[in-house]
């Protein structure tokens, strides 16, 4: 799609800290309005885009304000942090957790305990470990497969050419409800390069959707964050993962989450 939507990666000026329920309500309404506007540009129904608020690094008090403003699912990048928050917020019985960061096999047991969704599946070892622990606990998990669409070594995810074989093998894991694909675009102020990552994910889905095994759905495209979600929506995102535009800028640089990205010339959110 030839649209000239820009990225917004200069996060600190743009995203003041949300400190009250009203702040969260306003930020959520602003983001929803931006989602709706991007949908209009792309001729899409806003009901086809789910907003996943991302609460990583934010303290429990902030998460509780977000909950009071209506958030019922929160995204967290790191398992240990998510687990701690889940444990201390048990009183919010209808709050669900989506783990959106890379998972080591030895932490699959923890994710199986508390998460409703895992968006960063990228190995059969992790799939097997999750499935085994989920079965033992009588639980299931919504799962997205992470794809590295930028070709950067710093990004997790399967290479596009590995995806077909990987998806064929996922039907062995009956506790995993495979819903689609997830990606992180290049961090770049060059919107055209960012857009290419999102378009690649959509094209992969179109190609692989027909031949996916029974029970494996490739409907969801989770792509786009505070700096680039409008471009992602124009390219077909069904889930956008938005942290800073809702919660406020993060104290930690993104290099904490994507270690090798710290030297990148386009990394501006630190
Ligand atoms: C932090 C994070 C996001 C959200 O980024 P923001 O800049 O806060 O919107 C999205 N996806 C993943 C995997 C993340 O770790």
TrEMBL record:
Q: Which residues form a coiled coil?
A: none
**Keywords in alphabetical order:** Pyridoxal phosphate
Q: Write down the InterPro entries for this protein, in alphabetical order.
A: Ala_racemase_N, PLP-binding_barrel, PyrdxlP_homeostasis
Presence of keyword Cell division: no
- Annotated SUPFAM superfamilies: PLP-binding barrel (SSF51419)
> Where does the record place the modification N6-(pyridoxal phosphate)lysine?
56
Name all Alanine racemase N-terminal domain ranges.
Answer: 27-251
Function as written in the Swiss-Prot or TrEMBL entry: Pyridoxal 5'-phosphate (PLP)-binding protein, which is involved in PLP homeostasis.
What PANTHER family does its record include? PROLINE SYNTHETASE CO-TRANSCRIBED BACTERIAL HOMOLOG PROTEIN (PTHR10146), PYRIDOXAL PHOSPHATE HOMEOSTASIS PROTEIN (PTHR10146:SF14)
The protein, known as: Pyridoxal phosphate homeostasis protein
User: Which species is this record about?
Assistant: Comamonas guangdongensis
């Amino acid at each position: 799609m030839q649209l000239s939507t820009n990225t917004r990666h200069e996060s600190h000026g743009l995203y003041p800290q949300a400190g009250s329920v009203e702040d969260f309500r306003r930020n959520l309404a602003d983001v929803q309005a931006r989602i709706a506007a991007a949908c209009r540009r792309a001729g899409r129904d806003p009901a086809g885009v789910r907003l996943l608020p991302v609460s990583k690094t934010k303290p429990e008090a902030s998460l509780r304000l977000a909950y009071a403003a209506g958030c019922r699912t929160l995204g967290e990048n790191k398992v240990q942090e998510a687990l701690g928050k889940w444990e201390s917020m048990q009183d919010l019985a209808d709050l669900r957790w989506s783990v959106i960061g890379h998972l080591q096999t030895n932490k699959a047991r923890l994710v199986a305990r508390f998460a409703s969704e895992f968006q960063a599946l990228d190995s059969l070892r992790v799939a097997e470990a999750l499935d085994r622990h989920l079965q033992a606990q009588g639980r299931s998990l919504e799962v997205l497969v992470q794809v590295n669409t930028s070709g950067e070594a710093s990004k997790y995810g399967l290479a596009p050419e590995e995806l077909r074989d990987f998806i064929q093998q996922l039907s062995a894991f009956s506790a995993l409800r495979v819903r689609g694909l997830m990606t992180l675009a290049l961090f770049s102020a060059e919107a055209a390069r960012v857009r290419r990552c999102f378009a690649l994910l959509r094209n992969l889905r179109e190609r692989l959707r027909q031949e996916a095994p029974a029970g494996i759905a490739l409907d969801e495209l989770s792509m786009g964050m505070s700096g680039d979600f409008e471009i992602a929506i124009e390219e077909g995102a069904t889930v956008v993962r938005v942290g800073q535009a809702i919660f406020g800028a993060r104290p930690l640089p993104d290099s904490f989450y994507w270690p090798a990205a710290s030297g990148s010339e386009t990394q501006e959110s630190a």
